[in-house]
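User: For my dataset I need records formatted as: sequence, then structure tokens, nothing else. Please produce one.
Assistant:
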Amino acid sequence: MNGRTLEKMKYFVGRVCSIVSTSMNRAFDEQIAREHFVVRVQEIGPDGIWGSHPYNDEMISFFAMNHIISIHQEIELDPDNPEHAEMIREYEEKAGKKASSDLHGTPKTKPSVPEETEGGMAFVDIEHLERLADSTRKAFENLHE
């Protein structure tokens, strides 16, 4: 990885992101996959990405750079914020079901986040993430064929 890319990736530090990695020999259901591959990025370096679970900063994850396919910033929605509440309402109308937090539990400590993303509920578009993961997996498999 070149230095410019690594420098640009520093944008993600402090933000909640999904990390798409190469496949592994372990199967996860949807909720566990979110809780393992969605992190609040703590540090990015040439070896990889360190992150913590958005609602439990004591649960730390490390993703080795040579296994990372992509990183995607997620939107944290705060139902107490009127603009976010409207987005949640629109989503519920479109989906035809009540939205609930993608992450369960409450923070042990309030995470420090940039002001523009302060909020309590992390919202991850799982259907889009699953399609992205499938597409990425197929592209990766095609590379090795």
